[in-house]
Every structure is written in C-alpha cells, then in structure tokens.
C-alpha cells in the first residue's frame, strides 16, 4: 500500500492506492512532469536570451526545439489516452467508482481532461 505522506507531492490521481498501481496514471504523472521540466527549461532559456539580448533563431536550435516539443506533446497525448482508458474501465466497465464511493473518480476525469488540454 502507498502511504498518503509518501505521495503528498503527487497530483490527485496518484494519491489513491488502486490507481497509483495502474500504468496509465503513473505514465500521465511522469509525462506531465517531463513536460513541465521542458517548459521550465525553455522559459529559463528565453529569460537568458532576453537579458543577454541574444537571438535564438539559429536553425539548428530551432529544429531541436521543434523536435523536442513534438516528442513531449506525443508523450503527453499518449499518457492522456492511456489514462482515459483506465478511467473508462474503472468507471464504466467495472463500475468501480460506484462500488467504492471513497474514490474521487470525477477528479481523475478532470486530471485527464487537463492532460488532453496540455
């Protein structure tokens, strides 16, 4: 079992023990973490370029940004799709959300919606 204190830094789907063991939600959490790190790194690079008044329109650098943005976007989409599949199985097929009222299934659906929006 996963203790609440161990996962207090994770988003809400990860706080529920039956859901943390599913591959879809753990993949979503890791994918969104990678997306956040990549975006933070780009923001730091932009701030550096603005302070130093440097141009970032180097063709090699722009191609690297395009490829990496495409890769993180595909990872995020795949993670959101797999998590949506897990929620469909839990909520619709197994009726797990109705039999376990302590599970915040609506929060899981909202977190997947935000995953699709990113």
From TrEMBL:
Topology in membrane: Multi-pass membrane protein
Primary residence:
membrane
Keyword Chloroplast attached: no
Entry annotated with the keyword Transmembrane: yes
What InterPro entries does the annotation carry? Answer: CASP_dom (IPR006702), CASPL-5 (IPR045009)
Matching entries from Pfam families are given as:
CASP_dom
- Say which domain of life the source belongs to: Eukaryota
Looking at the record, the residues that make up the Casparian strip membrane protein domain are: 24-117
User: Which UniProt keyword terms apply here?
Assistant: Cell membrane, Membrane, Transmembrane, Transmembrane helix
Localization, UniProt: Cell membrane
Assembly and partners are described as: Homodimer and heterodimers.
Family to which the UniProt record says this protein belongs: Belongs to the Casparian strip membrane proteins (CASP) family.
Identify this protein by name: CASP-like protein
Q: What is the lineage of its organism?
A: Eukaryota, Viridiplantae, Streptophyta, Embryophyta, Tracheophyta
């Amino acid at each position: 079992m996963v203790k609440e204190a161990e996962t207090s830094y994770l988003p809400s789907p990860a706080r529920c023990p039956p859901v943390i063991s599913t591959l879809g939600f753990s993949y979503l959490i890791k994918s969104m973490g990678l997306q956040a790190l990549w975006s933070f790194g780009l923001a730091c690079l932009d701030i550096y370029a603005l302070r130093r008044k440097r141009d970032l329109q180097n063709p090699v650098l722009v191609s690297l940004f395009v490829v990496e943005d495409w890769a993180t976007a595909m990872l995020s989409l795949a993670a959101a799709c797999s998590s949506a599949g897990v929620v469909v199985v839990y909520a619709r097929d197994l009726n797990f959300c109705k039999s376990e009222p302590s599970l915040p299934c609506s929060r899981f659906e909202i977190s997947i919606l935000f995953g699709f929006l990113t």
